[in-house]
Design goal:
single chain; alpha+beta; Aminopeptidase; binds coenzyme A
């Protein structure tokens, strides 16, 4: 089963290792890999800053990746979603699709958000498919929006509203529980 759980002290090291993987880094908009110190400060902020939340994505209890929401203190009640599966063997097996649904459930349920949005590089097929399958709609196409390794990359802006999630939630959860990806 795929689950999301709160961060623990021991997650800091594996997250640093995952963030440095080329297959993860290539889709991140940061110009450079974070230093160990910057990573530790960011990890601490994920657990203490009211503007941020992060959860480990687990499969059968084992950590597979991370999902975060930022901008939580905005009065607009919207947040930006970031995520990755650091474990290469976890990718392409539906873990990402399930993590999106669980993340949106937290965002619109426990956190009471009005909107969740994401900026995804235009050639990131796996992220675009997983997020579209969870109900994100395409809201914009930002040309040359990100400079990565000196190259200008296009970005797709995705968003989903609480009202849309309320319509989709039951079907999305049922499809995943029927596939034994999440608990019923
Ligand atoms: C993006 C990511 C989280 C998606 O999770 P995932 O578990 O690999 O995705 P899923 O297995 O749930 O698949 C989602 C869809 O993408 C497709 N897909 C998966 N890997 C793919 C790939 N490498 N290329 C093209 N399509 C792919 C799947 O077939 C599925 O489509 P379908 O529902 O039409 O069959 C994961 O691939 C990842 O961590 N990538 C690196 C970091 C990253 O890109 N983070 C997101 C930044 S916005």
């Amino acid at each position: 089963m795929i689950e999301l759980r709160d961060l623990r002290d021991e997650d800091e090291a594996i997250l640093f290792q995952w963030r440095s993987e080329p297959e993860v880094d290539r889709w991140m908009s940061d110009a450079e890999l974070p230093s160990r110190e910057a990573h530790a400060a960011w990890f601490n902020a994920l657990r203490t800053d009211p503007d941020l939340r992060g959860w480990m994505i687990t499969r059968a209890g084992a950590p597979m990746g991370l999902i975060t929401l930022s901008g939580l203190s905005s009065h607009h009640r919207r947040a930006s979603l970031h995520w990755f599966l650091g474990s290469a063997e976890a990718r392409g097996r539906g873990v990402g699709r399930a993590a999106q649904v669980l993340g949106l459930d937290l965002a619109f349920g426990e956190l009471g958000l009005h909107k969740v949005f994401a900026e995804v590089m235009a050639d990131n097929d796996a992220a675009l498919k997983a997020q579209s399958a969870a109900g994100f709609r395409r809201e914009g196409y930002l040309r040359g929006h990100v400079l990565k390794g000196g190259e200008a990359r296009d970005v797709v802006l995705l968003g989903i509203l609480a009202s849309e999630w309320a319509e989709l939630r039951e079907g999305a959860r049922r499809a995943l529980s029927d596939a034994n990806l999440i608990a019923a």
